[in-house]
Amino acid sequence: xxxxxxxxxxxxxxxxxxxxxxxxxxxxxxxxxxxxxxxxxxxxxxxxxxxxxxxxxxxxxxxxxxxxxxxxxxxxxxxxxxxxxxxxxxxxxxxxxxxxxxx
Length: 103
What we know:
This protein has about 100 residues and is α+β, with helices and mostly antiparallel strands. The protein has one domain. It has 2 helices and 6 strands; from the N terminus they run βαβββββα. The strands form 2 sheets. The protein has a 4-stranded mixed beta sheet with strand order 1-2-3-4, covered by helices on one side. A two-stranded antiparallel sheet has the order 5-6. The radius of gyration is 14 Å and the shape is globular. The model has no long low-confidence stretch (mean pLDDT about 90).
């Protein structure tokens, strides 16, 4: 999610360099990379305020929220609401996982 004009990377025009929120749906084959090197790269983006990891196999959201001092704070939910303070929005875990998956 980007607030304001989109800014693309000079070397890869498909990569945005000014996201405020990134949502990653975890899969067994990419989870280690998503949580490791990819997340480290995201944390280097000055505009980024939050990253959400969405579990694929079972209900669960993990929100990493950037604090004013630059550290990251983890908020986990397997049910109920997850509030994203940086955007002043909430996601309902139950509603996200209740929706039927496309065939």
